[in-house]
Amino acid sequence: MQYMMFVATDPEPDTDVEDNVEEWVRENDASGVRVRGERLRPASEAKTLRLRGGELMVTDGPFTEAKEWIAGYDILECESLEHAIDVASRHPMARYGRIEVRAFWPFDGSDEGE
């Protein structure tokens, strides 16, 4: 099953640990767990859009006023949520930021899983 791993910043990181993201990427690419992943440009370069009443509204930056922002993502291929959590827990941003893990929800027209 595939999982999306959102990598977010955190205003209160654990900075006592060395950042080894390249090692994490190499290890999970080699094992086939990491399907793909990329960093994202800063939130200051984001655009948020809404379509209301036929009118497109585009604003600068993320919609929320949070101090945290999504810094990147990885797509993981894992046998279970527990496995995905284990893989994500070893990512440096689990210490420096926050990691959110969610299973992909195939669009098949059903609401199963809600």
Automatic annotation (TrEMBL):
Pfam families: YCII
Domain of life of the source: Bacteria
YCII-related domain segment(s): 1-107
Entries under InterPro entries matching the protein: Dimeric_a/b-barrel, YCII
PANTHER family assigned to the protein according to its UniProt record, in alphabetical order: BLL7171 PROTEIN, BLL7171 PROTEIN-RELATED
Family: Belongs to the YciI family.
Protein name per its UniProtKB record: YCII-related domain-containing protein
Organism expressing this protein natively: Orlajensenia flava
